[in-house]
Amino acid sequence: MFRVIASQMIVPNVHLLTLAAPAVAREAKPGQFVILRAEEEGERIPLSLSDWDADGGWITVVFLNIGATTARLASLTAGIDIPTVVGPLGNATEIENYGTVVCVCGCYGIGSIYTIARALKQKGNRIITIMEARSSYLFYWEDRLAAFSDKIIHITRDGTKGHRGHLARLPEIFRGLEEPVDRVLVNGCTFCMKRTADETRPMGIKTMASLNPIMIDGTGMCGVCRVTVGSVTRFACVHGPDFDAHQVDWEELLQRRKTYMPEEVVPLRTSRCEERHFKSQEKSHE
Amino acid sequence: MSEPVKKQYDLKRREMPKQPPEVRRYNFSEVALGYTPELAIEEAKRCIQCKKPSCIANCPVEIDIPGFLKKVAEGDFVSGIRVLKDKNCLPAVCGRVCPQEEQCEKTCIFHKKGGQIAIGRIERFLADWEAEQRELEMPQIPPRSGRKVAIVGGGPAGLTVAGDLIKLGHEVTVFEALHKMGGVLVYGIPEFRLPKAIVNREVEYLRTLGVELVTDFVVGKTRTIDSVLEEYDAVFVGSGAGLPWFMEIPGENLNGVYSANEYLTRLNLMKGFLFPKYHTPVKAHRKVAVVGGGNVAMDCARSALRLGAESRIIYRRSREELPARLEEVENAEEEGVIFDFLTLPLRYIGDENGWVKAIECQKMELGEPDASGRRKPIPIVGSEVIYPLDAVVCAIGNSPNPLIGSTTPGLKIGKKGNIEADEKTGATSREKVWAGGDVVTGAATVILAMGAGRSAAKSIHEYLRSLSRIPGNGS
Ligand SMILES: Cc1cc2nc3c(=O)[nH]c(=O)nc-3n(C[C@H](O)[C@H](O)[C@H](O)COP(=O)(O)OP(=O)(O)OC[C@H]3O[C@@H](n4cnc5c(N)ncnc54)[C@H](O)[C@@H]3O)c2cc1C
Ligand SMILES: Cc1cc2nc3c(=O)[nH]c(=O)nc-3n(C[C@H](O)[C@H](O)[C@H](O)COP(=O)(O)OP(=O)(O)OC[C@H]3O[C@@H](n4cnc5c(N)ncnc54)[C@H](O)[C@@H]3O)c2cc1C
Ligand code: SF4
Ligand code: SF4
Ligand code: FES
User: Fold this and answer.
1) Among the three residues B396, B427, B447, which one is the final residue of a domain in this structure?
2) Which residues lie across from B388 on neighbouring strands?
3) Inter-CA distances, B104 with B33, B95, B452, Å
4) Of B247, B246, B242, nearest in space to B402 by CA
5) Ligand 5 pocket, A217 CB below 6 A?
6) In angstroms, what separates the C-alpha of A103 from chain B's closest C-alpha?
7) Best label site of A115, A275, B196, B299, fewest CB within 10 Å?
8) Which residues of chain B have pLDDT under 70?
9) What is this structure's pTM?
10) Which residue, judged by its Cα, is nearest atom 2 of ligand 5?
11) Domain ranges of chain A
């Protein structure tokens, strides 16, 4: 059993959960994830580690309330136990001194990129953080990220903070930087990662994305998490979750993530990125 | 085989009552209902108590088969179960899933005449009878040795080691990656063949004996073996062969193409057949093809049927070469699984939304026997066929997960990813580390995994005792 230490909605529909999981906290590294179950009959779902403390024996996850399991997790309060928290799973993000690194994040990715940005900064990189959201009120952890960023740039679709628009604005944002970018990292919903990859590919900047396919065990046993990267099939849970974003078959990932759409009633959503993407695709089919 | 088989022997194997095929193909309850006490006694009485019983040698754990059959024939079930449990700590499981026709029953003296004693069915009867009577005996546990053993993996191999070592007075902790103990017995083999209540019962028994059971713990990730060894005197690795193989043919990542592990885990471990009460979704497919011919393939095909689909097995050799237990092949046939023998998948064909909609196969013919002694399938040119379907389950095999090997320096790994271990003792190339079961042999059987666990437990016990004999450690 794993006890909830703190639970909070940090911005509309995005929740933070701090859990007592000493064994996970002891081994956690930036870019890894856990699999958890919210209740005995529950599904196993993967969530990235957004923070942890080995001495305190706790971990923090930040998640979007999107379906049955995340809704249940969002309803938990301090003192409640959940049956499964297993990890840390997946490989840690590669942390080297690359020079200037741009961290692109949106939605839950703002939380999950935080420890990565921190580790990169500590390794001597210059960090430029680009946060993306529908509106300014959906930004969180700006202070935390600011502490390890040399620069923070905002993009909002409604223009309430920073650049107005979507990730399509990345090229001009990059052109406006006074220095060349050596590496891009992106965490967030699939569409946000795909779009970032599309924008940085022509610029020829190495871009790493933290993939989020459907998972069950997270240890390489079921194969549901397979993704095609550079025309090779990989299991995201053991070979990833980070992959070269320019090599990922994004259409396949978006498609595979939809497998259970009809079964899983999606009660609440703030980010409708995927929906828009598929609508535009459907149109082009007609 | 010294005894001559005489005519007057009763050669009629007593049938085990089963749910009728037209009923059971719509439910997930156990197919076989088990012997009644009367049937078990009748069947056990057919054993002629050979002086040199040829059955025993072909049981991987060498159960005293005539010994327990005699007790059953006498109606003394309590003594019968004692004989059984002396060698086999999971009789309710083995009686159900052992490939008896290849093991104990194959070398029964009556086999040639088709009247081999139904050893597995009687074994199963005894174990179930014991569980019902609740006359579970608690073994005498010697004083604590003060030695600690960690076990990686809660499958049959690991659980056997745990049971043996706790009974010898050592402290035992089992670390299991999933949220339930039992290994393939809980995530792979379906409820209709092995009810999960039986596995849970055995696991609970170990808990009452004092075994510490830790779930949600991936050794190699949550903690490495080296780190575990700082706290424990020895480690046994029984992590199984859980890495699924795919055919590596076009279209394999289409929606609706599953590994057998995914398909079965959703259903069994996650109880997807009870969706939405249990939250893990399972698709309602209409036409499912399962590629492969082993127990795993049969389990998938029969599960698909129970979920309401038309279900077919696609196998590249012929019926004779099917590696599955005969009983399960027959059950599948009775239930209406379609078999396409001598058929090899070439590619999966997708629809415009990325869902599989058909499979293209090639017909095969059997050529000369290959290294395994089975006749090799050879493609027939121009024989391609296309079957429409909406799901494919790939059940062509599994190999050991590389995680333990890659995180344990000095542990010797074989070509196929298996941990190399001494056949007799389970000792590995690393001091204080033993291994056994599927992780050593590749995908095999429950009873072989248990047998390996038993030998390793013996060897670990000897090692722990040798520690105590070191001067200053007492003895
Ligand atoms: C390595 C990894 C890290 C992730 N980190 C985060 C994170 O930090 N914060 C966050 O909000 N989300 C994260 N996700 C996505 C998250 O796992 C899904 O949002 C979550 O599973 C939804 O579950 P649900 O039951 O609430 O919703 P559902 O209604 O079950 O599903 C909604 C959608 O989520 C996806 N999904 C469903 N089940 C799973 C599953 N078992 N595994 C993965 N995706 C699934 C599907 O696309 C589905 O259509 C991560 C995914 C991966 C693979
Ligand atoms: C669908 C199916 C049907 C089968 N039918 C039959 C049958 O009818 N008869 C028969 O005799 N055999 C059958 N088998 C084979 C049999 O189940 C296996 O040979 C047997 O279970 C092997 O036991 P094991 O203990 O070595 O491994 P497993 O049963 O695989 O158990 C290994 C356990 O270790 C855990 N684990 C793995 N890695 C780690 C780690 N790093 N840290 C912690 N835990 C870990 C796994 O989660 C798993 O629970 C079947 C197999 C399958 C898949
Ligand atoms: S354990 Fe298996 S092989 Fe041995 S007697 Fe029982 S059924 Fe036969
Ligand atoms: S089971 Fe068969 S081989 Fe074994 S003792 Fe009885 S009759 Fe003989
Ligand atoms: S989640 Fe099962 S193999 Fe990756």
Assistant:
1) B396
2) B358
3) 22, 11, 18
4) B242
5) yes
6) 26
7) A275
8) 1-7, 134-136, 469-475
9) 0.92
10) A222
11) 2-89, 100-256
Could you give the CA distance from residue B208 to residue B167 in angstroms, rounded to a whole number? 12
List Cβ<8 Å contacts ≥24 apart for B377-380. B377/B316, B377/B317, B377/B342, B377/B344, B379/B344
Q: B358 with B387: CB under 8 angstroms?
A: yes
Closest C-alpha among A55, A1, A6 to residue A28:
A55
Q: What is the pLDDT of residue B86?
A: 84
CATH topology of domain A100-256: Rossmann fold (3.40.50)
- Which residue, among A87, A104, A79, has the nearest Cα to A49 in the 3D structure? A87
B425 shares contact with chain A (CB less than 8 Å): no
CA closest to A260 among chain B residues? B281
Asked if residue B319 and residue B363 are part of one domain, the reply reads: yes
pLDDT for position B431: 94
pLDDT at A265: 59
Per the rule left: phi > 0, alpha: psi between -120 and 50, beta: everything else, B34 is left
- Residue A5's pLDDT is what? 96
Q: How far apart are CA B82 and CA B88, in angstroms?
A: 10
Query: Helix, strand, or coil here: B133?
Result: helix
The verdict on B175 touching A (C-beta cutoff 8 Å) is no
B451 membership: H or E segment, kind and range = helix B446-468
Q: What is the CATH number of domain A2-89?
A: 2.40.30.10
Examine the fold and report which residue of B77, B98, B133 is the final residue of a domain before the chain moves on: B133
- In the predicted model, residues of chain A with pLDDT beneath 50 are 266-272, 275, 281-286
* Domain of B413, in residue numbers: 148-241+402-469
Question: Which domain CATH number covers B427?
Answer: 3.50.50.60
- How far is it, in rounded angstroms, from Cα B125 to Cα B123? 5
Pocket of ligand 2 (CB under 6 A): B 97-99, 152-158, 175-178, 183-184, 188-189, 218-220, 238-240, 242, 264, 295-296, 299, 325, 401, 403-404, 437-439, 443-447, 449
B287 shares a domain with B203: no
pLDDT at residue B468, rounded to an integer? 72
In a domain, B174, yes or no: yes
Asked if residue B374 and residue B279 are part of one domain, the reply reads yes
State residue B399 phi and psi, 5-degree precision. Answer: -135, 170
CA B149, B150, B153, B154: dihedral to nearest 10 degrees? Answer: 60
Residues B292 and B345 in one domain: yes
